[in-house]
């Protein structure tokens, strides 16, 4: 071992007071944390294996979807000339990417902080000039970047789906942006929870449960909530044109044969399909608008609702794609009986709810509030000198 | 430099409990700049908890800490710029190389970018890791990781150095080097606090020692004070019987030694009395072959304390 003469550590290097531009130096610290995290992630083999598996699985799903569609079309089955395979392939691939993203994001975010704590490296970072917020931001951004790598790998398949269906470039852009945002929400949740929980295993499980609550729990919560959200709506009678069913007795002709329906008196509003008439009465109904916000938090609803679709042109409107169906369903729930109950307030209701009042900003906003709240709690847990500590915590 | 305030590290009456466990109860510690202060105590005595509070990671329930006059709970950033902390857990980023770890540490301490590579090389040379600088930390041995940990604590040239068990896992050569590094740092005017179990080692390094037990400060003394206190000497001679006879004639009580060789153990009041006894024994014609303290000065104090392990 070399003997080092005294004074060899004397060096002009001393920590400089924070240079002008506090904001810049704050982000320089964040960037250093991101750099350290990314360098470690890039060196783990498991990461590349996961990316490869992801690529193969998404590729397989795309190919199977395309194959089954082309098989249907080459036979004598019903040819869906209107939509083509694009909408179908795009939607399936997109749903799959979202599902897989929700599944892998907790795995590389929910041990970011307590994994370091277990390895004894967190305290070493805390004792430097890094602020708790810089550590948290750095860990969050690094795990988000890792998540975006998965998105990049699935881009070719999303592109394929869009090209097959002749959808626009706007679709791919919005789809990627929304998927990236959803991954960011899950990563923020994971990093925040990992700062709060002691053990990596626990925080990963909790993050998975939160993801499950968002994707499945919101649907159940909406259903249960709707069951108890009774309410009333003022509506009058509905008269369907070209049907006999709703004809009051006074319109039945002398021979017992119904006449061709003549519109009843006192029509308040009508469209091509039906008319509203008569006095307003109170009807029992379910006020879905009160609980629609729960459904709005669902990542699938957020993504489906954000994808633009062409408004229908014909009079008979039925949603064509799965995403459109989800989006319309959620919007009907949000609009509530006042807008969707037949002849509510004596007005006809449109079958198609335009995208003027989209649901996804509400859902995304709620998700961001949730993720931000968890991150803020995590920030509190990272502050040093640490005051009260949860039981069993070891700082170093 | 700060002349009006205590120049160094001081903790006054700090306490900290975790739930029902009172890890540290009103401990005092003074580590003046330019000296090495040893923190000695059995496992579970509260050494690591005290060091965590000194390192600004843990807030004391009561009492105050001053790092060169700065209270870390009021101004942690200013305090941390002056603290170098080497934890007892190794805490190594396994996928990164020694050079990368030190470089990132330099960034975390906001060192000027241009100076970081030179500083990293300097520290790698100091802890003798230059040849392994680009190896992943995973492949380093425990002792090498320990040395990396020391380099990491020194990256920002701190004024106060807190080392938790720095010698554990080091080979004898590295221990000698560590001793020289620590003495060199103290000579530069840094306050160095070392917690260790290797007491014989501390005799050589430390200027003073603080003994803690069951969460309390038991004793604080300088090594000179420890050396002048009564301690046991081990004496061997070519003929053990004549040695026994001579000691009896001199009226010095003795007991059989604990070592492997035939030796006796005697209690002497201090170094002056020890040299007088040796002179008398030689004068009495005893062929003395070994005459040395049975244990280190600090170890003597440690063993005389009523040490209770938890």
Describe, in plain words, how this protein is organized in 3D:
The complex is a heterodimer of chains A (396) and B (310). By secondary structure, chain A is mainly alpha-helical. Chain A contains 13 helices and three strands, in the order H-H-H-H-H-H-H-H-E-E-E-H-H-H-H-H. In chain A, 59% of the residues lie in helices and 7% in strands. A three-stranded antiparallel β-sheet of chain A has the order 1-3-2. In chain A, helix 1 (22-42) crosses helix 6. The two termini of chain A are 29 Å apart. Chain B has two domains: 8-226, 3-Layer(aba) Sandwich (Rossmann fold); 229-304, 2-Layer Sandwich (Alpha-Beta Plaits), CATH 3.30.70. Chain B has eleven helices and 13 strands. A six-stranded mixed β-sheet of chain B has the order 5-6-7-3-8-9, with helices on both faces. In chain B, strands 11-12-10-13 form a four-stranded antiparallel β-sheet. Chain B is globular. The model of chain B has no long low-confidence stretch (mean pLDDT 86). At the A-B interface, helix 1 and helix 5 of A face helix 1, helix 2, helix 3, helix 4 and helix 6 of B.
In brief:
By secondary structure, chain A is mostly helical.
Mean pLDDT of chain B: 86
Task: Give the strand line-up of the largest sheet of chain A.
Answer: 1-3-2
Quaternary status: heterodimer
Rg result of chain B: 23 Å
Number of strands of chain A: 3
CATH level-4 homologous superfamily of the largest domain in chain B: P-loop containing nucleotide triphosphate hydrolases
Kindly report how far apart the N and C termini of chain B lie. Answer: 42 Å
Total strand count of chain B, please? 13
How many distinct folded domains of chain B? 2
What percent of residues of chain B are in strands?
25-35%
Sheet with the most strands: spatial strand order of chain B: 5-6-7-3-8-9
In this structure, how is the largest beta sheet of chain A organized? 3 strands, antiparallel
CATH topology of the largest domain in chain B: Rossmann fold
List low-confidence stretches of chain A. Answer: 1-20, 76-83
- Counting H and I runs of at least 4 residues, what is the number of helices of chain B? 11
- Low-confidence regions of chain B: none
Radius of gyration of chain A: 29 Å
């Amino acid at each position: 071992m070399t003997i080092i003469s005294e004074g060899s550590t004397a060096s002009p290097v001393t920590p400089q007071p924070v240079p002008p531009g506090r904001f810049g130096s704050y982000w320089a610290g964040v960037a250093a944390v991101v750099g350290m995290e990314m360098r470690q992630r890039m060196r783990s083999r498991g990461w590349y294996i996961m990316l490869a598996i992801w690529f193969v699985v998404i590729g397989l799903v795309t190919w199977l979807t395309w194959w089954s569609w082309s098989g249907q079309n080459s036979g004598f089955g019903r040819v869906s000339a209107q939509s083509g395979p694009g909408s179908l392939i795009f939607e399936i691939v997109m749903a799959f990417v979202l599902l897989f993203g929700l599944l892998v994001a907790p795995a590389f975010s929910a041990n970011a902080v307590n994994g370091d704590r277990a390895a004894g490296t967190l305290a070493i970072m805390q004792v430097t000039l890094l602020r708790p917020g810089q550590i948290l931001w750095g860990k969050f951004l690094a795990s988000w970047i890792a998540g975006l790598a998965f998105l990049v790998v699935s881009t070719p398949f999303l592109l394929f789906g869009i090209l097959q269906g002749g959808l626009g470039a706007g679709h791919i852009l919005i789809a990627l942006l929304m998927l990236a945002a959803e991954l960011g929400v899950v990563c923020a949740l994971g990093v925040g929870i990992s700062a709060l929980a002691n053990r990596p295993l626990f925080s990963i499980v909790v993050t998975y449960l939160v993801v499950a609550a968002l994707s499945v729990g919101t649907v159940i919560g909406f259903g249960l909530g709707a069951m108890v959200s009774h309410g009333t709506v003022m509506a009058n009678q509905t008269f369907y044109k070209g049907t006999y069913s709703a004809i009051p007795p006074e319109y039945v002709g002398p021979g017992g044969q119904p006449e061709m329906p003549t519109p009843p008196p006192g029509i308040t509003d009508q469209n091509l399909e039906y008319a509203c008439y008569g006095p307003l009465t109170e009807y029992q109904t379910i006020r879905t608008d009160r609980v629609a916000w729960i459904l709005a938090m669902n990542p699938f609803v957020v993504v489906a609702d954000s994808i633009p679709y062409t408004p229908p042109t014909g009079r008979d409107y039925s949603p064509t794609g799965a995403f459109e169906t989800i989006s319309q369903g959620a919007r009907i729930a949000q609009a509530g009986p006042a807008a969707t109950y037949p002849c509510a307030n004596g007005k006809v209701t449109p079958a198609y709810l335009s995208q003027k009042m989209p649901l996804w900003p509400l859902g995304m906003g709620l998700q961001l509030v949730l993720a931000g709240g968890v991150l803020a709690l995590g920030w509190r847990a990272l502050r040093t000198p640490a005051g009260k500590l949860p039981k069993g915590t070891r700082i170093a | 430099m700060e002349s009006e305030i205590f120049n160094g590290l001081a903790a006054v009456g700090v306490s900290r409990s975790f739930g029902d466990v009172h890890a540290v109860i009103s401990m005092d510690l003074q580590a003046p700049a330019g000296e090495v202060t040893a923190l000695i105590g059995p496992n579970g005595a509260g050494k690591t908890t005290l060091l965590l509070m000194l390192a600004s990671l843990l807030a004391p329930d009561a009492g105050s800490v001053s790092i060169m006059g700065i209270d870390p709970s009021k101004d942690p950033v200013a305090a941390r710029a002056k603290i170098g902390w080497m934890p007892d857990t190794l805490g190594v980023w396994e996928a990164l190389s020694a050079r990368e770890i030190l470089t990132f540490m330099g960034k975390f301490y906001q060192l000027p970018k241009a100076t970081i590579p030179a500083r990293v090389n300097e520290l790698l040379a100091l802890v003798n890791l230059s040849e392994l600088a680009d190896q992943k930390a995973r492949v380093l041995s425990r002792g090498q990781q320990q040395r990396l940990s020391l380099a990491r604590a020194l990256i920002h040239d701190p004024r106060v150095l807190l080392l938790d068990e720095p010698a554990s896992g080091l080979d004898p050569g590295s221990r000698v080097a560590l001793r020289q590094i620590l003495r060199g740092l103290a000579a530069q005017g840094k306050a160095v606090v070392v917690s260790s179990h290797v007491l014989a080692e501390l005799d050589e390094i430390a200027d003073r020692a603080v003994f803690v037990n069951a969460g309390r400060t038991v004793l604080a003394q300088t090594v000179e004070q420890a050396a002048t206190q009564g301690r046991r000497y081990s004496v061997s001679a070519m003929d053990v019987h004549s040695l026994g006879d001579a000691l009896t004639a001199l009226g010095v009580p003795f007991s059989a030694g604990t070592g492997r060789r035939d030796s006796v153990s005697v209690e002497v009041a201090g170094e002056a009395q020890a040299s007088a006894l040796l002179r008398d024994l030689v004068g009495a014609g005893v062929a003395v072959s070994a005459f040395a303290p049975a244990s280190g000065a600090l170890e003597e104090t440690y063993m005389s304390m009523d040490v209770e392990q938890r």
